[in-house]
Write a structure and sequence with these properties.
7-stranded mixed beta sheet; 9 helices; OB fold (Dihydrolipoamide Acetyltransferase, E2P); alpha+beta; 342 residues; elongated; binds zinc ion
């Protein structure tokens, strides 16, 4: 039985987080209980220095006589150091899990810099996210949006534009904003190509892919919806819609995009701080399915969107709040309202 230090925090997957002396990074390993359950550790596969993880990502695997297990990042951050001693002596994990058996050191965004992420709602499905003096906008439908609080001319400069899909109420002003601000549009490959051909700087991604940008990390995830791109008269840019998972300022936000309830949402369980979920029904989930989506994802905070823009997607956010009950904190934002995650 190892001495268990008092200054640790634990995850449900039995990783621990320990403060280091320099305050710039935290030390991560598995608990004494976990090493006991695993038995003799024979191999530990760890990431490279510089790798970036969101909270809940698999950062490595551990192989023991009894089982092989995945290791989950307890925090979002960048790997600053890896315990290379485990290559030659993986049993250090058994002998000294809180000392010589540590695995990685992670510069957690919340320690390294800001611990705040501010979300501002601009009506329908449009949000800006700000952290560490960087600003991105998701689904920038301002022009022609009856629910927005600001015209395009009053939108502050953004670093990037993230798109869930190509419908007009999401693609919106993406190309004009990209050209005005020199901002990059991040979207699925076909939609990115469409915007690129119209003079925007783009970065193409696709579902399942993640990438670290200067403003934060983006991962595209499945959404079930229509794939046509507004303004595409040729039909050659049809694409899969997606959800967008953004990690900035030490917080992870999941913008569901337009989607029905999907089993894939369960893959994000416990990995999301705030979930932006459509509740308007007709084109997307309604309240009942949005509540089930919250059950699937288990975010701390949930913000309803994609409702009351037009009569056909009329919904009562207070009813959504009541039905979510104790599952998550529901924050109802009027257009122009902001909410800070800290
Ligand atoms: Zn929509």
């Amino acid at each position: 039985m190892a001495n268990i230090p008092a200054d640790l925090r634990y995850t449900k997957d039995h990783e621990y987080v320990k403060q280091t002396g320099d305050n710039a990074s935290v030390q991560i390993g598995i608990t004494d209980y976990a090493q006991g359950e695993l038995g003799d550790v024979v191999y530990v596969d760890l990431p490279k220095v510089g790798a970036v993880f969101a909270r809940g990502d698999v950062f490595g695997t551990i192989e023991a006589v009894k089982a092989v297990s995945e290791l989950y990042a307890p925090l979002a951050g960048t790997v600053t150091e890896v315990n290379t001693a485990l290559e030659g002596d993986p049993a250090l994990v058994n002998k000294d899990p809180y000392g010589g058996g540590w695995m990685i050191k992670l510069a957690h965004r919340a320690i390294a810099s800001s611990v705040m992420l501010t979300l501002t709602f601009h009506g329908h499905a449009c949000f800006t996210l700000e952290a560490d003096a960087r600003r991105v906008i998701i689904d920038p439908f301002l022009t022609g949006n009856p629910a927005t609080d600001i015209p395009l001319t009053r939108l502050a400069k953004v670093d990037a534009i993230l798109l869930s899909h190509g419908h007009g109420d999401h693609l919106g002003d993406a190309v004009p904003i990209a050209r005005r601000d020199g901002a990059t549009i991040v979207a699925t490959a076909e939609l990115a190509r469409f915007c690129g051909e119209r003079g925007a700087t783009v970065h193409a991604m696709h579902i399942g892919g993640a990438r670290q940008f200067p403003f934060g990390r983006v991962k595209l995830v499945p959404a079930f919806h229509g794939g046509a791109v507004e303004g595409d008269t040729t039909g050659q840019f049809t694409t899969n819609p997606c959800g967008v998972v953004v990690t900035m300022g030490g917080h992870t936000v999941y913008h569901c995009g337009d989607t029905g309830l999907t089993m894939e949402m369960q893959l994000l369980a416990g990995r999301v701080d705030a979930m932006l979920v459509p509740i308007g029904d007709n084109y997307t989930m309604g309240i009942e399915d949005a509540v089930r989506a919250v059950e699937f994802v288990q975010p701390r905070t949930v913000i309803p969107m994609h409702y009351n823009t037009w009569d056909v997607i009329k919904a009562d956010p207070e009813q959504f709040q009541r039905q979510v009950g104790g599952r998550a904190r529901v924050v109802v934002l009027a257009p122009g309202d902001a909410h800070t995650l800290s």
